[in-house]
Design goal:
With 272 residues, this protein is of the alpha+beta class. The protein folds into two domains: 3-150, 2-Layer Sandwich (Fructose-1,6-Bisphosphatase, Chain A, domain 1), CATH 3.30.540; 159-270, D-Maltodextrin-Binding Protein, domain 2 (3-Layer(aba) Sandwich). The protein is built from seven helices and twelve strands. The strands form two sheets. Strands 1-2-3-4-5-6-7 form a seven-stranded mixed β-sheet. The chain has a five-stranded mixed β-sheet with strand order 9-8-10-12-11, with helices on both faces. A hairpin with a 3-residue loop joins strand 5 and strand 6.
Length: 272
């Protein structure tokens, strides 16, 4: 088979795979929505972890068998706080309840995500927001969409007119990272129009891809909360780098996604 025909076959296969992945995240989201509504009270870190795990397990009971059937030889990563490069081959990177702590607190900002990574590059991603019913999808070379409608980043070319956002990668960061987060927010408060700060990262990145906000940055990011949005923003025409403008990889210690017109300004602000 020629290289061209092989490429066409892989693309068709990945498009079919993305459609099935979207079905899986919607089913998992429906199960989590049934658990949503009341604030879950906890008094200790152990009680919190049990409550988080209960949500994760509810979604994983649906996601793992469905996605494993789709790609039996792919590896599996479900630790949303894990980072760094993956071993060679294909991997499912899944966050069964992105923004899980929000779910426990009856806050609406949470999602279910699944991304197929091939040789450390995200190939396809599906993100479902159960409370709105929206499903965001991206496929390398085929664009980013929400419920079939194409997404494009904003045309903003002035950081001073931009809405920007950041997120806390994980609890219990070391002091150096915490101080860097704080100084970056201060810098953006001087340079941008509005600064938003909340978890999870993926929902901010959906908004960058959709052109609702103009830039998002984060320090000490993890794989599961950045890969889906990185692919969505890239396929929607945005720029991805680390906070200093260098190419971003899962090993990077910072992350920036922005509309092309404000990317350089955002790098300058975050590099101060």
């Amino acid at each position: 088979m020629s290289e061209t025909l092989q490429t066409i076959d892989v693309a068709a296969s990945d498009a079919d795979l993305l459609a099935q992945t979207a079905i899986a995240v919607r089913e998992a989201g429906s199960a989590l929505r049934e658990r949503f509504g009341e604030v879950v009270r906890y008094q200790t870190r152990e009680e919190l972890m049990r409550a988080l795990a209960a949500n994760d397990d509810t979604a994983l009971d649906i996601l793992r068998p469905r996605l494993t059937r789709l790609r039996p030889d792919a590896g599996w990563v479900e630790d949303e706080l894990d980072g760094g490069a993956l071993p060679p081959g294909e991997w499912w990177v899944v966050d069964p309840a992105e923004g899980n702590v929000n779910h426990l607190h009856a806050l609406p900002e949470w999602a279910v995500t699944a991304t197929l990574v091939r040789e450390n590059q995200p190939v396809l991603s599906a993100v479902h927001l159960p409370l709105t019913g929206e499903t965001y999808t991206a496929l390398t070379g085929a664009g980013a969409h929400v419920d079939g409608r194409p997404l494009r980043v904003s045309r903003t070319a002035d950081l001073g007119l931009s809405i920007v956002a950041t997120s806390q990668a994980r609890p219990d960061e070391d002091e150096k990272v915490v101080r860097r987060v704080g100084s970056s927010i201060t810098a953006m408060l001087f340079d941008a129009l509005v600064v938003r700060a909340a978890v999870p990262a993926t929902l901010h990145l959906l908004n960058v891809a959709a052109g609702r906000i103009d830039a998002f940055w984060q320090f000490a990011g993890a794989r599961a909360d950045l890969l889906p949005g990185a692919l969505l923003v890239t396929e929607a025409g945005g720029r991805i780098s680390d906070a200093e403008g260098r190419p971003w990889t899962p090993q990077s210690q910072s992350f920036l996604a922005a509309a092309p017109g404000v990317h350089a300004e955002a790098v300058s602000t975050l590099s101060r």
